[in-house]
Amino acid sequence: MRSGIRLLYALQALPSLDPCHLIANRPDYVVATWRQIFCAIWRRETTEDAVRRVHHACVEFAKQHLRGIGLLTVVEGEASLPPAGARNALASRRSTRGGAPCDDSPSLIC
User: Do 45 and 31 touch, CB atoms closer than 8 A?
Assistant: First the structure.
């Protein structure tokens, strides 16, 4: 079992915590939420399409939490370096203003 998924199961197992919600579980990424935290786990290939889908899920989640959300990004050891198109898509999603849910300093765990 990969480290990102183990993290989600560990959160789920703690009885005093609210449950986490699995939004997407794909070979290349996982999206989950816990309270007002949005978690994106990059597993293998980071494609432009995956970046678009994860960003869309993040924006939709943020609409439910008007006071703001936190972003936790986990890059698993098997993940390859994203190609230029995906890196550009990631950068453009972070720099978007006016409705972008995430701040300028998301957490990154490698």
Answer: no
